[in-house]
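Take a look at the protein record below and tell me what you see:
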Amino acid sequence: MSDKFISGIHNYCDRWCERCTFTSHCRVYEKTSNLTPEQEDINNKAFWENLTENFKNTLELIQKEAIKHGIDLSKPLSIEEVRAYKIKEEEFEIETDKNPIFILCKKYQAITMPFLNESEGMVDKARELLDHLHLGIHSEKDVVYTLADIGDCFRIIEWYLFFFEVKLKRAFRFKIEGEEWEVENGYPKDSNGSAKIAIVAIEKSMAAWACLYNLLPTCQDKAIQVLSYLEQLKRKALQEFPEAMHFKRPGLDN
Protein backbone atom coordinates (compact mmCIF):
# COMPACT_ATOMS: atom_id res chain seq x y z
CA MET A 1 0.00 0.00 0.00
CA SER A 2 1.28 3.47 -0.87
CA ASP A 3 2.67 5.47 2.07
CA LYS A 4 0.43 8.40 1.13
CA PHE A 5 -2.67 6.57 2.35
CA ILE A 6 -3.63 6.59 6.03
CA SER A 7 -4.99 3.19 6.95
CA GLY A 8 -8.54 3.31 8.32
CA ILE A 9 -8.96 7.09 8.02
CA HIS A 10 -12.34 6.60 6.33
CA ASN A 11 -13.75 4.51 9.20
CA TYR A 12 -14.32 7.45 11.54
CA CYS A 13 -14.84 10.44 9.26
CA ASP A 14 -18.10 12.24 8.47
CA ARG A 15 -18.10 11.23 4.77
CA TRP A 16 -18.11 14.90 3.69
CA CYS A 17 -15.30 14.53 1.17
CA GLU A 18 -15.69 17.97 -0.43
CA ARG A 19 -14.84 19.58 2.91
CA CYS A 20 -12.09 17.18 3.93
CA THR A 21 -8.41 18.13 3.80
CA PHE A 22 -7.31 14.49 3.93
CA THR A 23 -8.78 13.23 0.65
CA SER A 24 -5.29 12.76 -0.83
CA HIS A 25 -4.60 10.30 1.99
CA CYS A 26 -7.84 8.33 1.70
CA ARG A 27 -7.94 5.21 -0.44
CA VAL A 28 -11.76 5.15 -0.43
CA TYR A 29 -11.85 8.69 -1.84
CA GLU A 30 -9.37 7.75 -4.53
CA LYS A 31 -11.52 4.81 -5.58
CA THR A 32 -14.77 6.80 -5.69
CA SER A 33 -13.71 10.25 -6.91
CA ASN A 34 -12.11 9.27 -10.21
CA LEU A 35 -15.01 7.37 -11.74
CA THR A 36 -15.66 7.89 -15.43
CA PRO A 37 -19.13 8.94 -16.64
CA GLU A 38 -19.56 5.36 -17.86
CA GLN A 39 -18.77 3.96 -14.39
CA GLU A 40 -21.42 6.23 -12.85
CA ASP A 41 -24.09 5.19 -15.35
CA ILE A 42 -26.12 2.27 -13.99
CA ASN A 43 -27.09 1.27 -17.53
CA ASN A 44 -23.47 1.03 -18.67
CA LYS A 45 -21.35 -2.13 -18.59
CA ALA A 46 -18.50 -0.18 -16.97
CA PHE A 47 -20.72 0.57 -13.95
CA TRP A 48 -21.29 -3.13 -13.27
CA GLU A 49 -17.67 -4.05 -13.90
CA ASN A 50 -16.54 -1.47 -11.36
CA LEU A 51 -19.19 -2.64 -8.88
CA THR A 52 -18.07 -6.26 -9.33
CA GLU A 53 -14.46 -5.27 -8.67
CA ASN A 54 -15.49 -3.42 -5.49
CA PHE A 55 -17.46 -6.43 -4.27
CA LYS A 56 -14.47 -8.65 -4.97
CA ASN A 57 -12.13 -6.42 -2.96
CA THR A 58 -14.66 -6.19 -0.13
CA LEU A 59 -15.05 -9.97 -0.01
CA GLU A 60 -11.29 -10.38 0.22
CA LEU A 61 -11.18 -7.99 3.18
CA ILE A 62 -14.06 -9.81 4.88
CA GLN A 63 -12.31 -13.14 4.40
CA LYS A 64 -9.10 -11.79 5.92
CA GLU A 65 -10.99 -10.41 8.92
CA ALA A 66 -12.89 -13.69 9.33
CA ILE A 67 -9.64 -15.67 9.39
CA LYS A 68 -8.20 -13.23 11.92
CA HIS A 69 -11.22 -13.75 14.18
CA GLY A 70 -11.29 -17.53 13.67
CA ILE A 71 -14.51 -17.54 11.62
CA ASP A 72 -15.07 -20.11 8.89
CA LEU A 73 -17.03 -18.42 6.08
CA SER A 74 -17.13 -21.60 4.01
CA LYS A 75 -19.51 -23.16 6.52
CA PRO A 76 -23.12 -22.10 5.73
CA LEU A 77 -25.37 -20.90 8.54
CA SER A 78 -27.96 -23.34 9.78
CA ILE A 79 -31.66 -22.46 9.91
CA GLU A 80 -31.35 -22.11 13.67
CA GLU A 81 -28.44 -19.68 13.32
CA VAL A 82 -30.33 -17.58 10.76
CA ARG A 83 -33.37 -17.50 13.03
CA ALA A 84 -31.20 -16.57 16.01
CA TYR A 85 -29.62 -13.74 14.00
CA LYS A 86 -33.04 -12.33 13.02
CA ILE A 87 -34.20 -12.45 16.63
CA LYS A 88 -31.01 -10.71 17.72
CA GLU A 89 -31.56 -7.95 15.14
CA GLU A 90 -35.17 -7.46 16.23
CA GLU A 91 -34.10 -7.24 19.87
CA PHE A 92 -31.45 -4.69 18.98
CA GLU A 93 -34.00 -2.50 17.17
CA ILE A 94 -36.43 -2.74 20.10
CA GLU A 95 -33.65 -1.90 22.55
CA THR A 96 -32.47 1.15 20.60
CA ASP A 97 -35.98 2.40 19.84
CA LYS A 98 -36.71 2.78 23.56
CA ASN A 99 -33.27 4.19 24.41
CA PRO A 100 -33.40 7.92 25.39
CA ILE A 101 -30.55 8.67 22.99
CA PHE A 102 -32.47 7.49 19.93
CA ILE A 103 -35.72 8.98 21.15
CA LEU A 104 -33.90 12.34 21.16
CA CYS A 105 -32.55 11.63 17.67
CA LYS A 106 -36.09 11.09 16.38
CA LYS A 107 -37.39 14.23 18.11
CA TYR A 108 -34.57 16.25 16.59
CA GLN A 109 -35.27 14.88 13.11
CA ALA A 110 -39.00 15.50 13.45
CA ILE A 111 -38.39 19.20 14.14
CA THR A 112 -35.51 19.72 11.74
CA MET A 113 -36.86 18.08 8.58
CA PRO A 114 -39.82 20.48 8.18
CA PHE A 115 -37.52 23.40 8.97
CA LEU A 116 -35.13 22.44 6.18
CA ASN A 117 -38.03 22.08 3.76
CA GLU A 118 -39.41 25.50 4.66
CA SER A 119 -37.26 28.37 3.45
CA GLU A 120 -39.52 31.15 4.74
CA GLY A 121 -37.07 32.37 7.38
CA MET A 122 -34.20 32.48 4.91
CA VAL A 123 -36.32 34.29 2.32
CA ASP A 124 -37.39 36.89 4.92
CA LYS A 125 -33.77 37.46 5.89
CA ALA A 126 -32.73 37.82 2.25
CA ARG A 127 -35.43 40.45 1.71
CA GLU A 128 -34.34 42.30 4.86
CA LEU A 129 -30.72 42.31 3.74
CA LEU A 130 -31.65 43.56 0.28
CA ASP A 131 -33.69 46.36 1.84
CA HIS A 132 -30.71 47.29 4.02
CA LEU A 133 -28.48 47.20 0.94
CA HIS A 134 -30.76 49.64 -0.89
CA LEU A 135 -30.87 51.90 2.18
CA GLY A 136 -27.09 51.80 2.54
CA ILE A 137 -27.24 50.11 5.98
CA HIS A 138 -25.20 47.12 4.78
CA SER A 139 -22.68 46.80 1.99
CA GLU A 140 -23.02 44.30 -0.85
CA LYS A 141 -20.12 42.35 0.68
CA ASP A 142 -21.93 42.08 4.03
CA VAL A 143 -25.08 40.81 2.34
CA VAL A 144 -23.20 38.19 0.34
CA TYR A 145 -21.28 36.92 3.39
CA THR A 146 -24.38 36.78 5.59
CA LEU A 147 -26.38 34.82 3.01
CA ALA A 148 -23.41 32.50 2.49
CA ASP A 149 -23.22 31.87 6.26
CA ILE A 150 -26.93 31.07 6.41
CA GLY A 151 -26.68 28.71 3.46
CA ASP A 152 -23.69 26.97 5.04
CA CYS A 153 -25.61 26.45 8.28
CA PHE A 154 -28.46 24.82 6.35
CA ARG A 155 -26.01 22.50 4.57
CA ILE A 156 -24.33 21.46 7.82
CA ILE A 157 -27.64 20.75 9.55
CA GLU A 158 -28.89 18.76 6.56
CA TRP A 159 -25.67 16.74 6.22
CA TYR A 160 -25.67 15.55 9.82
CA LEU A 161 -29.45 15.20 10.23
CA PHE A 162 -29.39 11.38 10.22
CA PHE A 163 -25.64 10.89 10.45
CA PHE A 164 -25.14 10.85 14.21
CA GLU A 165 -28.08 8.48 14.77
CA VAL A 166 -26.50 5.96 12.38
CA LYS A 167 -23.09 6.28 14.02
CA LEU A 168 -24.50 6.00 17.53
CA LYS A 169 -26.39 2.84 16.54
CA ARG A 170 -23.13 1.39 15.24
CA ALA A 171 -21.46 2.30 18.54
CA PHE A 172 -24.26 0.63 20.52
CA ARG A 173 -24.10 -2.49 18.39
CA PHE A 174 -20.40 -3.00 19.05
CA LYS A 175 -20.82 -2.21 22.73
CA ILE A 176 -23.64 -4.73 23.11
CA GLU A 177 -21.95 -7.46 21.07
CA GLY A 178 -18.69 -7.01 22.94
CA GLU A 179 -15.22 -5.99 21.82
CA GLU A 180 -13.11 -8.49 23.72
CA TRP A 181 -10.97 -9.34 20.68
CA GLU A 182 -10.03 -5.69 20.17
CA VAL A 183 -9.13 -5.26 23.83
CA GLU A 184 -7.10 -8.49 23.96
CA ASN A 185 -5.16 -7.57 20.81
CA GLY A 186 -4.52 -3.94 21.68
CA TYR A 187 -6.96 -2.37 19.23
CA PRO A 188 -9.16 0.63 20.16
CA LYS A 189 -12.86 -0.04 20.56
CA ASP A 190 -14.89 0.70 17.45
CA SER A 191 -17.77 1.74 19.69
CA ASN A 192 -15.72 4.67 20.99
CA GLY A 193 -14.61 5.70 17.51
CA SER A 194 -18.15 5.62 16.14
CA ALA A 195 -19.47 7.48 19.18
CA LYS A 196 -16.76 10.14 18.81
CA ILE A 197 -17.59 11.04 15.22
CA ALA A 198 -21.28 11.10 16.21
CA ILE A 199 -20.53 13.56 19.03
CA VAL A 200 -18.39 15.68 16.70
CA ALA A 201 -21.34 15.79 14.26
CA ILE A 202 -23.68 16.81 17.09
CA GLU A 203 -21.30 19.63 18.06
CA LYS A 204 -21.11 20.89 14.46
CA SER A 205 -24.90 20.81 14.23
CA MET A 206 -25.15 22.79 17.46
CA ALA A 207 -22.74 25.41 16.10
CA ALA A 208 -24.82 25.73 12.92
CA TRP A 209 -28.07 26.16 14.88
CA ALA A 210 -26.44 28.73 17.18
CA CYS A 211 -25.34 30.67 14.10
CA LEU A 212 -28.87 30.56 12.68
CA TYR A 213 -30.20 31.79 16.02
CA ASN A 214 -28.15 34.95 15.54
CA LEU A 215 -28.77 35.36 11.81
CA LEU A 216 -32.46 34.38 11.52
CA PRO A 217 -34.63 35.96 14.24
CA THR A 218 -37.70 34.11 12.90
CA CYS A 219 -36.20 30.74 13.82
CA GLN A 220 -34.95 31.60 17.32
CA ASP A 221 -37.68 29.69 19.18
CA LYS A 222 -37.07 26.59 17.07
CA ALA A 223 -33.30 26.94 17.47
CA ILE A 224 -33.59 27.05 21.25
CA GLN A 225 -35.70 23.89 21.29
CA VAL A 226 -33.37 22.08 18.92
CA LEU A 227 -30.24 23.14 20.80
CA SER A 228 -31.82 21.77 23.96
CA TYR A 229 -32.32 18.38 22.29
CA LEU A 230 -28.79 18.35 20.89
CA GLU A 231 -27.25 19.30 24.23
CA GLN A 232 -29.15 16.47 25.94
CA LEU A 233 -28.12 14.09 23.16
CA LYS A 234 -24.46 15.03 23.48
CA ARG A 235 -24.54 14.64 27.25
CA LYS A 236 -26.21 11.24 27.12
CA ALA A 237 -23.82 10.03 24.41
CA LEU A 238 -20.84 11.03 26.56
CA GLN A 239 -22.37 9.27 29.55
CA GLU A 240 -22.89 6.10 27.50
CA PHE A 241 -19.42 6.24 25.92
CA PRO A 242 -17.21 8.07 28.46
CA GLU A 243 -13.98 7.17 26.64
CA ALA A 244 -15.21 8.24 23.20
CA MET A 245 -13.47 11.61 23.02
CA HIS A 246 -10.14 9.97 23.92
CA PHE A 247 -10.34 7.79 20.82
CA LYS A 248 -7.63 8.66 18.28
CA ARG A 249 -9.06 8.55 14.77
CA PRO A 250 -6.37 7.57 12.23
CA GLY A 251 -4.94 10.72 10.67
CA LEU A 252 -7.75 12.96 11.87
CA ASP A 253 -6.69 13.15 15.53
CA ASN A 254 -2.92 12.66 15.22
